Amino acid sequence: MIKTEKVLHLKSSRGRKVRVVREHYLREHVPCYSSLCQAQCANEGKVLSGEVTHYVMPDAGVARDFMEILEFREIQGIVFTQTACQAVQHSRGRRQYNRLRSLLKDPRHHCILFANEFQEYSYCPREKGEPQDKWQTRCVYHAAVWYHDHLAGLKPVVMITEDQNAVAEYSSLNCGVYVLCTQEYLQTFWPELQAALELYCSIAQSLQEKGSEGTEREYTEHLPAEVLEAGIKSGRYIQGTLNVNKHRAQHEAFVRFEGSSNKSSELNSDVLVCGGKNRNRAVHGDMVAVELLPKGEWRGRTTALTEGQGEEKGDETQSQPMATGRVVGILQRNWRDYVVTFPPKEETQSQSRNSQRILGTPWDQRIPKIRISTQQADKLQDHRVIVRLDSWDSTSLYPNGHSVRVLGRAGELETEVQTILIENCIHVPPFSEAQLGEMPVSSPESPWSVDPAEVITRRDLRQTHLVFSVDPRGCEDVDDTLSIRSLPPGPRGERLELGVHIADVTHFVKEGSLTDLEARARATTYYLADRRYDMLPAVLSADLCSLLGGVDRYAMSVMWDLDAQTLAVNTVWYGRTLIQSSYQLYYELAQALLNGEEAEVPELGTIRDAKLAQLTQALETLTHVARQLRAQRDKGGALELEGVEVRAQLDEDRNITALVPRQPLEVHETVAECMIYANHWVARKIQESFPQQALLRHHPPPRQEFFNQLQDSARARGFTIDTRSNKALADSLDRAVDPRDPLVNRLLRVMATMAMSNALYFSTGACPVDQYYHYGLALDRYTHFTSPIRRYADMIVHRLLTAAIAMEKGAGPAKALASNKELEEVAQQINNKNRAAQHAQKVSTELFQCLYFRDKDPETDERCVADAVIYTIRANGMLVFIPQYGLKGAVYLKNREGQVVSERQDGGCDWQTGSLQRYLDHITTTTAVGTSTFNLFQHITVRISVQPSRCHSDTIRLEVVSNRPHQAPETQVQTSQPQGARGRSQLVQEVVRQAEEASQQAEEKRGRASKLSTEEREFRQSKCPNLYSLLEEVRELALLDLAACGAGGGGLGAAAQACATSA
Length: 1063
Ligand SMILES: [Zn+2]
What we know:
Blueprint: E1 2-11, E2 17-26, E3 55-58, H1 60-65, H2 67-70, E4 78-81, H3 82-105, E5 111-114, H4 132-150, E6 157-161, H5 164-170, E7 177-181, H6 182-189, H7 194-210, H8 225-234, E8 237-244, E9 252-257, E10 271-274, H9 275-279, E11 287-292, E12 325-332, E13 338-341, H10 345-350, E14 357-362, E15 370-373, E16 383-391, E17 400-409, H11 413-423, H12 433-437, H13 452-455, E18 459-460, E19 467-471, E20 480-490, E21 493-503, H14 505-508, H15 514-522, E22 526-527, E23 532-533, H16 538-544, E24 552-563, E25 569-586, H17 587-594, H18 609-636, E26 646-650, E27 656-661, H19 666-689, E28 695-698, H20 708-716, H21 726-735, H22 742-755, E29 760-763, H23 792-808, H24 820-854, E30 865-874, E31 877-882, E32 887-892, E33 899-903, E34 909-918, E35 922-927, E36 931-935, E37 939-947, E38 955-962, H25 984-1006, H26 1014-1018, E39 1038-1039, H27 1043-1046, H28 1052-1056, E40 1061-1062
Parallel strand pairs: 3-6, 4-5, 6-7, 15-17, 18-25, 19-25
Antiparallel strand pairs: 1-2, 8-9, 8-11, 9-10, 11-12, 13-14, 13-16, 14-15, 16-17, 19-20, 20-21, 21-24, 22-23, 24-25, 26-27, 28-29, 30-31, 30-37, 31-32, 33-34, 34-35, 35-36, 37-38, 39-40
Helix pairs in contact: 6-7, 11-24, 18-19, 19-23, 20-22
This protein binds zinc ion.
Zinc ion binds next to loops.
Main location: cytoplasm
Cofactor: Mg(2+)
Subcellular location: Cytoplasm
């Protein structure tokens, strides 16, 4: 090892130049991480494959400015030099550097780090007077030459640089080492990767424009990092995340402060930031430091909005003044990819034409307009484009960004769906060749079969147990099956054996494999209204792991030996099994069997009697057991909540023909209860085995103030809702039944659901034991075990259970388990992805609701007129629920001209000049004609139309037609019974059938909706029309994402966002 000195010229955060001398050690052996190595380097971990045509080595400038291009997974064989990495670290900050590091770590990316400056023969010291960038380029070139020689010339090495002089100087020096500029490189080696070339041009253009900024200051300079840090420590500044009110995006934002570093303890709420100057270039989601304004300048948050009211109008209602401040610095930018709509031609031309700059409007209303330099302004007008932000200088009114990829024309279905994915940070590229290469082979020619060596390690249930599944019709990914049978009586009497058998996914997906990493990154299967994106490749999710009928499958089982009378647990067995499901039932069929109706069971064919009786018997016993289990949980305070769930009915061409609210069958509950039972017992097992590092799922009790709306609304109808505990809440909800209108109870349950927080995954070591409780299910411990095909959490739990079983057998965990800290990080990641999945699903449902109503004329089409129930009163209108479409939304009673809705003699409504008065349980409008009253829980008639938007999503608009119930021409859809009444299944079935028939008839009369083009259909990754099958996770709470409604005050708009989704 040789010791030298290395001189660095660094810039301090105040802009001072510092000269640092560091000791620098050189070694002869520095790993090359290439599989072609001829010199026995200690290459541990990821190595570059030799199966590429060349290796590519970006110089410091390329790594710094064009890393996005190097992130394309298609570009393989990238060697990042230490020189280039340090350049990224020093000039682009921690965030960008971390991005590079995770790229280097990720086995799905073909790139490695070569520590060229530690290599004795590739290191070149900086010469006196040599500019830093020249030196860095020289270093990288030397590294390229060394690398090429080290691999004995087996692979050409291409260095890429933006420095034309370097191309001229180096390109002909060494045979086998090429020097190209980036653009030429992409054109020569990756001509089919058009997206990379386009992105290159976009970034290059943006860099070029950056030099020509104006000098006039639009904003105050941000304070330097060390000043901010000291200010936060002393309590002068407050640190927090900027949250923009989407309904008043340019005007109102809040800073949610984070935790302990905050010393100004009298503050217990958010800090309001008013206007663009005070926001000072902070973007929604950024971590900022704010300084409070003098108390005299404090203001209140806006509490009501009038429909369509411009931001400038000053007559909005404000609440009490609250802590108000201004942003003095940015601690961490949290920019992501944004979908932006390019302006129409008129607007591009009015902007300076030579500079080719346009102002794009982000789809997310909370993000400011973005200035983009482009040569495609004409071509891309009215297109949606992915844009990344580059900078926002104090001299620029808007942030600068560059376009990354064109999604398509705004308003087209495929563009809109891709927009939803990008906006929720959901990345679901097709599975790569390398990932698919890990999969076992199963094709019609050589079908997969069980391995005899594996069979002997498993408990074989094929001959002993009647196993069956119950799923939505047409389900491809069957991850759970059930069995139930009698056991010989024991000393304490009759015994039953209940079995839950779950797809053994982790048998096929080894920890750390590419498939595992991809599944972990996705965390869940994503269900949108018309398609799904699977977490695992189809060969697993629809075939080898899917517990299909009539084939041998590996399973992870939990089997309880129960007292037949009391269901007391005698023993529990956990382990790997081999099963063959005898029946693959769907819910309606299982329910029909239970109801004793004539039903066609495909597996039985013509021979029926005895076998059918056996199956029906099993279903009946299971129903009985599930009722008893449910009753036990009810005693503990389990909640029955309502999420509004709608199913889009599609024809064979996948056009929507109707929106149908989902109706539960009792068999849903039976299956769900067994799954909850299995999840609970697995949670107990893994928590007992690994008290510090098991993955559980808890549901924190809601904050009492969130129940105010529920309690006020219930009181208006004469009910008292006791929210002191889940048991009290469940009991009082059960009592709050209006015999004349079952919807009242359902709406109260919706409101209770909206008050809840999300259930979350956590590591047992990261949370005190008394917080393990699952409030909604009333269980002391809970986890997810039963859906490993579509939830990564369940895969982790399967591995934990396997380790627990091995430990019990005295083997000790075969592999080191994740530490508490690692597990907690994964848990947070999965929680975030779940939130994104729920949100994307909700937004895609709204998209389809808009598509459904978009081509109908609200004035003439009777499907656009519906019955609605008022469930909340607001300052300027009310929130209503439309049972027929499972739709919730705001109805405004005052418009932008100041007119109010007034009732005519015949019950119809129009707009008149007048005033509005809000009360606890009703709202009135007064005009020259008279007074109209709208009461809580009253049924009214509304007209549904679509409010189109060019840059954002379309929205559903509701208007009062009459303040009387809607007289439907056809059979009115009725809703489910309020209570957990067990006799309800038949009624429910009746209702579903009626609803579906009614909508079918209506549809046939009016002809089909417009067809999707072939291209639109081609893009879909999933071929399954199995909509919303996620919602089969029936009982584990329909829960609200609080972030969506917590901010932005009590305005109608904000509250209208609140929507329950299934968790
Ligand atoms: Zn080597």
